[in-house]
Amino acid sequence: MKNRKLIILVIICLFLQAILFISFDFRFTTLPILDGFPVGLATPVVTRLLVYWYLPIIAFSFYISGNIKDLLSNYGFLQISRNYKKEYWLIKQFLKLFVKIILFICLQIALISIITPFHISWTSQFFYLILGYFLMLFTIFSLQYLLELFIDAQKALLIINSYLIISVLAADLIYQNTVTTWPYYLLIPNYGMGFRTGLCEFPNTSTSLISQPAGLIILLVVLLCVFTIAIKKFKTTDIL
């Protein structure tokens, strides 16, 4: 029942996002969710763009919050006892998360393409934008799963979403106050914005903060570390 309500919340937020982008006059180059928004904009514009971009993401974060512990308290324990080793069961949950994010992005792109004036252009740029956006979300939500193995689900939800918002805003502050580039690579949410990875160009402004090839490699390395730590932790977790 809880999951059904949260799925409805995610869908409502996806529709709302698409509706909000209809009336927003901004020079996106592909789709708003893939472009993200560049650094150096006026505060009111940044606030609106951040809310529009972030709205379905926080809804999805609520949807997956506590999933692992909820499953264990229902039938996960029996599955592990009878059919699965602990690590296989946990890997299966990450694979389910993988599929859920793909479905989430597909629905997001479909709604924006149908409801708004923005349309899909099947180019290599579009493919890399989707790949970066997907890997960013998969990394963020995998980190949420990992945190839930160590702390309460509500705390993990708060930490992940705080990190997401702070990362987006911090990139803007860094851009305005220093020429140092390495801090951007600690701010994973920016990896999913085309304006900030150089895949999309904003008129008369260079806002590329992160090298796209390096960013993809870093995300894959982070995911590998997350899976490794999660499996080691789960092996020693008492599920009785």
Structure characterization notes:
The chain has 9 helices and no strands. The protein is mainly alpha-helical. It has one domain (2-235). The radius of gyration is 19 Å and the shape is globular.
Précis, in short:
This protein has helices at 2-22, 32-35, 43-64, 67-82, 86-115, 124-148, 153-177, 194-197, 212-235. The protein is mainly α and 240 residues long.
Uncertain runs with pLDDT below 50, 5 residues or more?
none
Helix percentage: over 70%
Proportion of residues in β-strands:
under 5%
Radius of gyration: 19 Å
The mean pLDDT is 89
Task: Note the gap between the termini.
Answer: 24 Å
Biggest beta sheet attributes: none
Counted beta strands: 0
Derived from helix and strand composition plus strand pairing, the structural class reads mainly alpha
SS field, number of helical segments: 9
How many domains make up the 3D coordinates?
1
- General shape: globular
What is the ordering of alpha helices and beta strands?
A: HHHHHHHHH
